[in-house]
Amino acid sequence: MSSDKICVAFMLAFVTGGSALAGEGMWTPDNLPKAQLRADYGFTPDAKWIERAQKSALRLAGGCSGSFVSPKGLVLTNHHCVNSCVQQLSTAEKDFIKSGFLAKEEKDEVKCPEIELNRLDQITNVTERVKQATQGKSGEDYSKAEKAVKSDIEKECVGADSEHTRCDVVNLYHGGVYDVYKYHRYQDVRLVFAPELETAFFGGDPDNFNFPRYDLDMGVLRAYENGKPAKVTDYFPFSKNGADTGEMTVILGNPGGTDRQLTMAELASTRDRDLIPVLLLLAERRGLLEQFRSESPERWRIAQNDLFGVENSYKALRGRLEALQDPTVFDRKRQQEAELRGFVNADPARKAKYGAAWDEIAKALVVYGTIETRYKAIEGGRGFGSRYYDYARMIVRGAAERDKPNAERLREFSDSRLPSITQRLFSTAPVYADYEEVKLAWSLTKLREWLGSDDALVKQVLGKESPEALAKRLIAGTKLGDPAVRKALWEGGADALAKSDDPFIALVRDVDPQARALRTRYENEVESVIDKNSELIAAARFEKYGTSVYPDATFTQRFSFGKVEGWTEKGVAVSPFTDIGGAFEHATGAYPFALPPAWLAAKNSLNLKQRLNFVTTNDIIGGNSGSPVINRKAEIVGLVFDGNIHSLGGDYWYDASLNRAVSVHSGAILEALRKVYHAQALANELESARRH
Amino acid sequence: MSSDKICVAFMLAFVTGGSALAGEGMWTPDNLPKAQLRADYGFTPDAKWIERAQKSALRLAGGCSGSFVSPKGLVLTNHHCVNSCVQQLSTAEKDFIKSGFLAKEEKDEVKCPEIELNRLDQITNVTERVKQATQGKSGEDYSKAEKAVKSDIEKECVGADSEHTRCDVVNLYHGGVYDVYKYHRYQDVRLVFAPELETAFFGGDPDNFNFPRYDLDMGVLRAYENGKPAKVTDYFPFSKNGADTGEMTVILGNPGGTDRQLTMAELASTRDRDLIPVLLLLAERRGLLEQFRSESPERWRIAQNDLFGVENSYKALRGRLEALQDPTVFDRKRQQEAELRGFVNADPARKAKYGAAWDEIAKALVVYGTIETRYKAIEGGRGFGSRYYDYARMIVRGAAERDKPNAERLREFSDSRLPSITQRLFSTAPVYADYEEVKLAWSLTKLREWLGSDDALVKQVLGKESPEALAKRLIAGTKLGDPAVRKALWEGGADALAKSDDPFIALVRDVDPQARALRTRYENEVESVIDKNSELIAAARFEKYGTSVYPDATFTQRFSFGKVEGWTEKGVAVSPFTDIGGAFEHATGAYPFALPPAWLAAKNSLNLKQRLNFVTTNDIIGGNSGSPVINRKAEIVGLVFDGNIHSLGGDYWYDASLNRAVSVHSGAILEALRKVYHAQALANELESARRH
Predict the structure, then answer these.
(1) Tens digit of pLDDT for each residue in B675-691?
(2) Does A464 reach chain B within 8 Å, measured CB to CB?
(3) What part of A 269-298 touches B (C-beta under 8 Å)?
(4) Which among B655, B662, B564, B520 is positioned nearest to B12, based on CA atoms?
(5) How far apart are alpha carbons A97 and A90 in whole angstroms?
(6) Neighbouring residues of B570: CB distance < 8 A, sequence distance ≥ 6
(7) Which of A247, A446, B126, B387 is 20 to 30 A removed from A676 (C-alpha atoms)?
(8) ipTM of this predicted complex?
(9) How many CB atoms are located within 10 Å of the residue B144 CB?
(10) In chain B, what residues touch A645 (CB-CB under 8 Å)?
(11) Pick from A321, A442, A453: which is nearest to B290 by CB?
């Protein structure tokens, strides 16, 4: 995932309940560490400040963050968060990835087929309702009850207007708290500006997760409603000066996930069953895409965004794996778990309530080990890697699920979530048949590798064909590349499906019963057991450490507080800032270290001393990409796009001395817009946005 | 490596010194478990039987095993051991990989450019001499002294005739015993027969390491001397009937390496620092080669052998990794180490002698951790993956090393080893420039990834070029694809080099000082410390367990004793035999499950009940590929080509109930030669070979 950036937190300080170090913590809007903010920064945000910030910040439903930066719905995020849109709007003739994109006027702004923005408007605690629904239940009963209550709560929260309202039940503290988050949903989102990939991702994969950096990793979107730019009252004004060394910085975003509260059994399973297989899969996919991309400029254009995602995830997950291979870290976590279990077992009542939870989770993970490969290959879709297959499955499952009561559906087909499905399904993004054929053929060979050539499902899928021949035949025969065909099948429901002879629809029909069976087994025997017992551990943790702590990240809005500060790398001080001049000094002219023509042409007019990128101590992780960096006046001083190399693996703890968030400087954004891209209107809109 | 097959041994029985289970053990010719053979099989081989077997068996220096099967120097081994030769003899017009190869007469037998055969003639114990040379030394002194004494011993052993004699000092029991093995060397080795890849490797990677199997994984070579077929007195006659269920089978071969005696620190380092990085590298390379291969039939032909090697190693090492991730195995090994260390520490004298060895090794591995990535990338050559670079380095280093006294050279350039270098360097095997360009460009991106784009060496190598541009330029400018040019540079030595403007020679000149520095550091601070302390642990082990055990595999000749026996797979009995009919039943017609035309045409004439593949309980591992399976009359009953899936990971222990060696049945070899390939002369030569 292009948003799979990692951050780090100091587990010890957290788990022992000690107050977090400066920088540590991903705080929910309704539980900011106010005493600590006063102590660390003399900062005392009032309710209005917090609400404004909360509603100015945005989530990109696909896996990024962003923010409103003008009253006319202008949105600032990363290039790597809009890269897929830029690619989808490009053609062999006009490649915006290479040339960049600028809408000179409103009428030139083009809709992104698959981007959805969420603005968090309301948080309601529903802990009691969820816990009562699952009270005393286990296994399948627990799983069904949990699904049902969540779907009910979300549906009630959405009410009539599911087009503009999205509600998600959020599980915090691994079941310690359940909230329902009510979002305003924007699905008409248009591309306003994107620089050339060479500028946005200067240094490419080699410099990814590194600093010093020289990237203009920015993208500008605009939210529309009823065909007009959305009028918004909450947005962040722009600070041209940015923030100085030592100045407090607040980052609001949607960190995707952290693993700071997992049990030892879960950590070992993560390391051996999840990270290693997915890294091996990513590595092979990377090699495939590298060679595919080298075959022609058009193939380069088609594959580059996927390859970026693969390389980005690879590097991030590699760092996590190395963290989990560090015996000192593992031993420390073992001690922490022993400490909590000791606390539980010391009291008979607590022991009776919580004592078995860790072993129950471990047992569920043993079950997981027996189905994990099949589950990921079939239900996870790893063995059928093609957009056509994904579309066919949405259609086939959608027809079946929509006939069921809301509470009994697969979660992703509940009423409150259907708009996300249809946005993807009806997307006008181009599908490249020859590329899909390569990916599908390859993933079918993986399916055979993982399940074995004598496996019944493998025989059923491949028959007497090779993966290559099957992929070719399916793709030659499908019409699902056409959004109109997909829409007709979706809206036609079961009847339309019955008449369809599309080969992907037929394939999904063959595979889906086994896929669903695996999912049911996973939900009933693994997920529900882990959820139930994680809730118990969370309750025990509250009893021991209280609630003045932050929950693991859940791709919901979090506030992170830090400051502009470099670090010491092998005895050498790393300055927190780079400048535009540094980009020219590091340009070799060869990809990925080449600056595009517009920059070379503008060199003389540019202020080479203008700060370009900078680092702060804020605690972020994947999903924070595109987050605004604001100062205490709630002005934009930067745009998060990465973490430094030390932040890799930091799913598990935070090291204030080394871990840094990497951002684009607000001044560099204005400098580039005006002098390189001559986007005066856009720059003016940013600079004129003021607090009203 | 195409020979990277794995076998398994029951560590407990071994380490606790208990007698090995039936099947377990890789025994040196001079230390067979005679009492056990009598007890288990009523088998009492005399000195003559053993010597004959020893001299009839062969080692393929590149990493396989084989055996003489006629007095005229005919050699039986695996197709995957001669695959590289078959490919090197093929062209776009005539692809012997696809069509197979048969020399109807002697004159049609074609020399393999890079195959060397070794016949083990003599074993001499030199333990005292080696240990005295390193007595009381450590670090660089130890490393130099060890290198010097080994080179001296080998040179004395070889004497005048380095062309036909090869001597290797062999380190057994991790330094418990040093022997010098004297081999008769054959470098004029010609291809006689190879079936189509589709037959040899039916089922391909999906079925690799699996059983039931239906492979004719055989290749036939002939050793020549003075331009004539070599006359040999020791060879194995052929048994048409093969061996029956329960019958004892002896496998003679050269298992490449096992890790049954490593310390816990070494096992952890193997898992985290060696296996995982190499698996990730193999996975990415695999994806690259899969896509490269798909681009044209010619590219398929060029890349297939490399891809086979990559996939084979990947599957084998994946199995090893999973074994090392099994906590029960790791805990068991921890107990075993604790047991031995307890024995050592219980006695003050022993403690003083051996007590520190484990921690010293652990410390050396910490040093290794700090240089490992650079060492593998630069000295290991992973960052410069191209035949041209390998050639250039042989030439540049050869010129420097040959000017030094034998004892002071890099080991691979000692007098006794130069013939192996020159065989590779002067090889007439074709070099495909566009393929080399893809591999080199890719590995240069890895170099940059591992060392970082700001690394001095990376900047020195890449300058302002991209890896792709640099690879293109280097390969466009080199003449090293021509063996005559390589020969001239080698023979011209320093003077010729000084005049050379070949870009790869220049690149190696730039990189080699740093490569050599890394190697020196590795040898002095890691290898020598591990060798020295492993010797101490080996001595302690001898004190506790005695010497009635077998040493870890070292790619030297070993005898393994077992029997024909199936196993039970998830409650279902697996028969030890498959037959030719089964191959036709499993043929889908789609690669890799397609039988070639010759087989389809011969179907009616074939005895479909003829046994094709079979499994035995013998203890084998990578390097055993091509090993003869003989009965107590020393007749060939089969040809080892694989281990079953349970044997994966068995670097570390042996499970007699599950671990099986997989072989081609001798009867199937004759049946196929006569009825499918109409190779009557060859079949006659095999069947007429009798004990004289």
Answers:
(1) 999 999 999 999 998 86
(2) yes
(3) 272, 276, 279-281, 283-292, 294-295
(4) B655
(5) 7
(6) none
(7) A247
(8) 0.92
(9) 18
(10) none
(11) A442
Residues in chain A, how many?
692
CA A169 to CA A215: how far, in whole Å?
A: 36
A409-448 residues touching B, CB cutoff 8 A: 438, 442, 445, 448
- Calculate Rg over the CA atoms of chain B: 25
- The pLDDT value given to residue B479: 98
In whole angstroms, give the CA distance from residue A372 to residue A317. Answer: 19
State residue B22's pLDDT score: 64
Among B166, B170, B177, B182, which Cα is nearest to B123's?
B182
Which of chain B's residues have a Cβ under 8 Å away from the Cβ of A288? 287-288, 290-291
* CB-CB contact of B174 with B261 (8 Å): yes
Backbone angles phi, psi at B507, to 5 degrees: -60, -45
Of B206, B284, B464, the CB nearest to A286: B284
Q: What is the pTM of this model?
A: 0.93
Least CB–CB distance from B290: residue in A288, A452, A589 = A288
* B342 and chain A in contact, CB less than 8 A: no
In CATH, the number for domain A3-116+187-260+551-688 is 2.40.10.120
Structure tokens at B559: 């005898």
Token representation of residue A414 = 């509940």
Q: Which residues contact B92 (CB under 8 A, 6 or more apart)?
A: B298, B301
Query: Per the structure block, which two tokens stand in for B444?
Result: 């240069």
The SS3 of residue A169 is strand
DSSP assignment of B205-254 equals HHHTT-SS------EEEEEEETTEEPP-S--PPB-SS---TT-EEEEEE-
- For residue A549, what pLDDT is reported? 84
- Please name every residue paired with A661 in a beta bridge, in sequence order, or none if there are none: A616, A643
> CA of B448: which chain A residue's CA is closest?
A206
CA B432 to chain centre: 25
Instruction: Name the residue ranges covered by the structural domains of chain A.
Output: 3-116+187-260+551-688, 264-546
Between CA B370 and CA B362 the distance in angstroms is 13
Residue positions counted in chain B: 692
As a whole number of angstroms, the longest Cα–Cα distance in chain B is: 75
Is the pLDDT at B226 greater than 70, yes or no?
yes
For residue A291, give the nearest of B292, B462, B593 by CB distance.
Answer: B292
- Nearby residues of A228 by Cβ (< 8 Å), 6 or more positions away: none
**Subunit contact B284:A283, Cβ cutoff 8 A:** yes
pLDDT in tens, A323-345: 898 888 888 889 999 999 999 99
Helix (H) or strand (E) holding B58: strand B57-60
